[in-house]
Design brief:
Layout: H1 21-24, H2 35-42, E1 46-51, E2 56-57, E3 60-61, H3 62-68, E4 72-78, E5 96-97, E6 104-107, H4 118-121, E7 126-130, H5 141-155, E8 158-162, H6 198-207, E9 221-224, H7 248-257, E10 277-280, E11 288-290, E12 308-312, H8 318-324, H9 329-338, H10 348-353, H11 357-363, H12 368-372, H13 376-385
Parallel strand pairs: 1-4, 1-7, 4-6, 7-8, 8-9
Antiparallel strand pairs: 2-3, 5-6, 10-12, 11-12
Helix pairs in contact: 5-6
Length: about 400
């Protein structure tokens, strides 16, 4: 397998494949639909699939598509939220067996060391990743992919990414991770909004030597790219990627509102519109109110059962949200309205933003624009650094 054959050249007859029909509505064919490109690479090999409920080709799961095409899938890996995508954020997910196929599922989110054992690694020759990411440094699907890339490098396995569009792939924004804040919600020296697909990010991880010990997959890494996608595409996700991201507006607001996870403020978990609102029982000067409840995907949300006062963002225009990029005005507004100083934040805030200066600047009364200016040059440098790894037009 040649490291620089990224398998993204056009295959005209795939435009009419039944497997591509669902993606064609947006003129995008995802990597998983390009069976004729990846099936030959997997012939005669034992395959491990990293996937979940987003791994769909039309109405069929990628696992079923593989099996129907004679691919020998021996192992399933599942990321955060589990193989069917119903677990809460960070919730323990046990290893099990896929009921439909009998193939064992090796959870990478079971509360233990999140690396597969040597016994599991011995059961396959190649790892195939097919996940719908949303393009944020703290969204954990890429972290799971990184762990498996490390495992593949250590055990001499091949690694293939079936690529999917990044719904936040149209811009780059946010501070580059200060690696002293490295955690399960930040594993690489990249901006919060990195603007890359998982396939592109995998190429950058390998090319920049970011695997453990400077290992390289080299020609054991390949990406089956999407067709018809550019970084300016507005790609509506056919399946919501996790239980609390259930609208495109929520996905566009996610780079700006997720920081409330590192504060005492609710961002709407336990409501119909998580990430599209924020509030607290003691927030002053707000008429909008909501009460978080225990619901599927948010069994014990922050401020459960308490009436919160805050701001409703559900009426915002998506293009305006995209144009604003990371917008810290929401966090600054809540901080000022609560008036509790540093007690507003938890230590998780610094892990999410990946930088120790932002909390301090908010406390000092800096504006969102002043804070954003501290990372602008780093963003431009990163955009140049990533250019060699991009598979799609900017």
């Amino acid at each position: 397998m040649n490291n620089r054959l990224f398998l993204f050249f056009a295959v005209a007859f795939m435009l009419f494949s039944p497997l591509a029909i669902h993606s064609q509505q947006q003129h995008v064919i995802v990597g998983a639909a390009r069976v004729s490109e990846y099936a030959p690479l997997l012939a005669g090999k034992r395959v491990a699939l990293l996937g979940n409920h987003t791994s769909m080709v039309g109405q069929s799961h990628t696992l079923d598509v593989m099996l129907d095409n004679g691919i020998n899938v021996t192992t399933i890996f599942s990321p955060e939220h589990g193989f069917r995508g119903s677990a809460d954020a960070g919730e323990h997910v046990s290893s099990s067996v896929d009921a439909a196929t009998g193939i064992p599922i090796a959870s990478l989110y079971d509360g233990k060391k999140r690396m597969p054992s040597a016994d599991v690694m011995a059961k396959f020759d190649v790892i195939v990743t097919d996940l719908q990411d949303v393009g944020l440094r703290y969204y954990t699907y890429y972290v799971t992919m990184l762990r498996l890339m490390n495992a593949a490098a250590e055990y001499g396995k091949e690694f293939i990414v079936l690529d999917r569009p990044n719904p936040n792939g149209m811009y780059v924004d946010g501070p580059i991770l200060d690696m002293k804040y490295k955690s399960g919600v930040g594993a690489l020296p990249i901006p919060v909004v990195h603007g890359m697909t998982l396939g592109e990010l995998a190429l950058m991880i390998d090319g920049e030597g970011w695997l453990d010990g400077g290992r390289k997959l080299g020609d054991r890494l390949a990406v089956v790219a999407c067709e018809g996608y550019t970084h300016q595409s507005r790609y509506t996700l056919p399946v919501w990627p996790s239980p609390n991201l259930k609208s495109m507006l929520a996905i566009y607001l996610y780079p700006s509102t997720c920081y409330f996870e590192g504060t005492v403020v609710s961002l709407g978990r336990g409501t119909d519109h998580p990430f599209e609102m924020y509030g607290h029982p003691d927030m002053k000067g707000c008429q909008f109110e909501f009460t978080p409840q225990s619901v599927a995907g948010a069994k014990n949300p922050p401020l459960l059962g308490r009436k919160c006062y805050g701001r409703d963002l559900t009426g915002l225009d998506s293009e305006a949200v995209i144009a604003a990029g990371i917008n810290l005005e929401y966090v600054i507004d809540a901080y000022r309205r609560l008036g509790i100083g540093d007690k507003f934040f938890t230590s998780f805030f610094d892990l999410l933003i990946g930088n120790g200066d932002v909390r301090r600047m908010i406390i000092e009364g800096k504006s969102a624009a002043e804070i954003k200016a501290i990372w602008s040059s780093d963003v431009e440098a990163f955009k140049v650094r990533r250019r060699d790894y991009l598979l799609y037009a900017e």
